[in-house]
Amino acid sequence: ETDADRAAAIFERACKKDESTGCTSLADLYYHGKDVPKDEHRGCELFVKACDLADADGCRSAGFCWAHALLGP
């Protein structure tokens, strides 16, 4: 297990516990394919969850996803 794998696992656990920063960090990994398989849709869904948890960066990124039709209405 690499440091990147551990970081992704930590972000995932934090997001599952509704920690907004964990969701935004995990979303960024998936959206950009950093140390995890690239999955823009999953990244965008996680940005929305972060936004729902009042994370400003998550909201900004979720808005980008909606503006670029990476999410439904």
Question: Can you characterise this structure?
Answer:
There is one protein chain. The protein contains four helices and no strands. The radius of gyration is 11 Å and the shape is globular. It is an all-alpha fold.
Number of helical segments with 4 or more residues: 4
Order of helices and strands: HHHH
Helix content: over 70%
Uncertain residue segments: none
**Overall 3D shape:** globular
Mean pLDDT: 93
N- to C-terminal separation? Answer: 38 Å
Number of strands: 0
Biggest sheet overview: none
Determine the strand fraction and express it as a percent band: under 5%
Quaternary state of this entry equals single chain
Sheet/helix structural class: mainly alpha
**CA-based gyration radius:** 11 Å
In short:
With 73 residues, the chain is mainly α. It has helices at residues 3-16, 20-32, 40-52, 56-67.
Supply database-style keywords.
73 residues; mainly alpha; 71% helix; globular
Layout of helices and strands, plus pairs?
Blueprint: H1 3-16, H2 20-32, H3 40-52, H4 56-67
Helix pairs in contact: 1-2, 2-3, 3-4
